[in-house]
Amino acid sequence: MGFGDWWDQHGVPRVIRFACGMPAIMKLRSQVVPLASGEVFELGCGGGINQQFYNAGAITRYAGIDPSGKLLDYARGEAEAKGWQADIRHGIGEDIPFEDNSFDTVVCTYTLCSVQDQAKVVREMRRILKPGGKLLFLEHGRAPDPEVLRWQERIEPWWKPVAGGCHLTRPITEAVRAGGFAIEPMGARYLPKTPRAIGWNEWGVAIKDSA
Ligand SMILES: C[S@@+](CC[C@H](N)C(=O)[O-])C[C@H]1O[C@@H](n2cnc3c(N)ncnc32)[C@H](O)[C@@H]1O
Questions:
Q1: What ligand 1 atom has the least distance to the C-alpha of 163?
Q2: How far is the CA of 141 from the centre of ligand 1 (A)?
């Protein structure tokens, strides 16, 4: 195994667990994740950090996928600690292994930055939602300020291999809207005490129309 493979399999999952557990991020998770209800699917559930925020009483079924074996192990450990039934599988957002119209809520946090094909993933999340269902999103991405964006463009080529394929310049709300959702924004800001190039966050609720 070369260093790159070793880093992806062992280093990146540990960095993700640490970085994605920062207090400012946990605060945002606590605003978004408890809104999940009914039959819930989480894309990029690896690490399992969101599980502590789910209101188990409002959820009738929880399923999630992630392509990282190590992060799936963490997620299964979190499910055990929470003591709930969780259908946690290996998979990718470009080809979600569930039927059309099968979930009330899809949760997607800090994952659209890392997928291969963002537009396809947004379409897949919409496909598996029931009409009227909601996508809860919380993501970092393309900053609105031109000078920050220039830094993001400079840093991204070396950031991506170090950070598990994470992009810095991807649009968030616009990408979700372009996938056919009606957006109810909840917030957008730079995270405190974080370099602005990696700190721009947007979060909200995206509704699949019931037509
Ligand atoms: C920065 S981590 C965030 C993990 C978790 N969603 C969270 O909020 O803590 C990015 C996650 O996206 C997952 N990922 C990468 N490519 C993916 C894909 N094509 N489909 C679904 N998940 C993917 C990674 O394995 C990783 O778990």
A1: 1
A2: 14
| pLDDT at residue number 5 | 83
Strands 129-140 and 200-207: antiparallel
The confidence score (pLDDT) of residue 127 equals 98
Q: 197 — phi, psi (to 5°)?
A: -65, -25
What is the whole-number distance in angstroms between the Cα of residue 29 and the centre of ligand 1?
Answer: 15
Q: Is 163 in the pocket of ligand 1 (CB under 6 A)?
A: no
Q: What is the mean pLDDT of each run of 10 residues along the chain (211 residues)?
A: 80 81 96 98 97 98 96 96 97 98 98 98 98 98 98 97 94 97 98 96 95 65
Binding site membership of 204 for ligand 1 (Cβ less than 6 Å):
no
Sign of the Cα pseudo-torsion (118, 49, 188, 56, in order) = positive
Confirm or reject: Cβ of 125 under 6 Å from ligand 1. Answer: no
109 Cβ below 6 A of ligand 1: yes
The CATH superfamily holding the domain 3-207 is Vaccinia Virus protein VP39 (3.40.50.150)
